[in-house]
Write the structure tokens for this entry.
Amino acid sequence: MTLRIHDTRTGKKVPFEPLVAGKVGLYICGTTVYGFCHIGHARKEIAWDVITRHLRASGFELRFVRNITDVDDKIINRAREEGITADEVARKYTEEMNVDFRALGLAAPDLEPRATEHIAEMIEIIRRLEEKGLAYAAGGDVYYSVPRFPGYGQLSGQSIEGLESGVRIEVGEHKQSPLDFALWKGAKPGEPFWPSPWGNGRPGWHIECSAMAHRYLGERFDIHGGGADLIFPHHENELAQSEGAFGAGNFARHWMHSGLLTFGDVKMAKSVGNVITIRQIAEGHDLEALRLLYIGVHYRSAVSFTVAKDGQQRPVYPELDEAEGKLEYFYRTLARLAEAPAGDDKGPVLPEAEKTLSSFQEAMDDDFNAAAAVGHLYEAFVLANKLLDDPKAAAKDVRRRTLARLRRDLLKCGETLGIFQREPAAFLAARRDRQCARKGIDAAAVEAKIQERAAARASKDFTRADEIRKTLAGQGIELMDGPTGTTWRVV
Ligand SMILES: [Zn+2]
């Protein structure tokens, strides 16, 4: 089966054929760097991280460009608040973004151009648009003339007439049509500016991406992506600018959009006051669990995130806690698989273990359906546990080979999804520490009780040993006796 992708413009899934065989050019709209990244950013970045990992794992030579928007009203406002320059704001929050993105396990893009380093390219496109009669200067600004571009609305599925009825020209704007948007904004006092044929000023947001995509991917490239909130107006405007300047069909061949993060029906937004940063989550949770939660929902769908309060009025995130529980099950199984006796690779395995890789690939090739792919991995984990629990579940050699195969395939598929790549022991220890901290459990006291129980057992005082086990169970602590001693976990 070949890769199929969902194209926003046609609303259909289509077989993916790159412009140049074996190569993919991908442009994603990046972050406007004026504050700490939140878990909505994480939703988008993880979706695209999985898409790019799968493209690479499928053998495509990928050129992944993700820009940084480092000039914008929000950055300028933040600079005023913090009493530093807009450039300092952008650099500071780019650094913070990189810290968060590394913590999320995101593979870095191949190119990460900054808007302010591509002003000349933007001016060049605006100049072309002016020559073609698609742009006009007015009141120190330069605007794109939407009614003169016949394809406007094709990406978001709207008509110019329908769009026009919903907007009007504000006082002080010099637009010819209410849909027209700024390509270049005349300099205002105290704002960063660059010289241009239309006087000092700064670029509009949309032109940045047209210019950087053109510079690094050429006139035509395979996929333009971003969050679904960018379809209109940002991507509609980018398309109008680029095809307006370079000719119809000369921009992204496919458009893809990732779903958003919602709190029930409410969008996450500063104005609503419900923004949760990646760092806030990292304080008490595992970011790999956040990844698992997100990839469990198709990348095009919205992820619903719930915030509740515990007895001490601390925020709790039920979906995230559930995902972390699943991740514990996965890592615990991987730890057991690593300890299982190694099997040689030659010879048959159980038929159920043959299909992990192929069913995973099939799901991912169906428009990157990571949720279905995780479902297939879950089946493999269940099979692994069945075999680990019951040495008689299969002939000895077949069992060993099957366990070895399952482990290998699970780790390989996990790499494409960006999960299961840590040492299981490290994950499990960190998870237990977090649970102890949250529930107020003293790990040293638990260890002491386990020692006491071992001594009781050694002196055949099984009543006392059982009492200790029951007391600990009452605190939510489960003991697991194994050949190398007793281990424990918080349940
Ligand atoms: Zn963009």
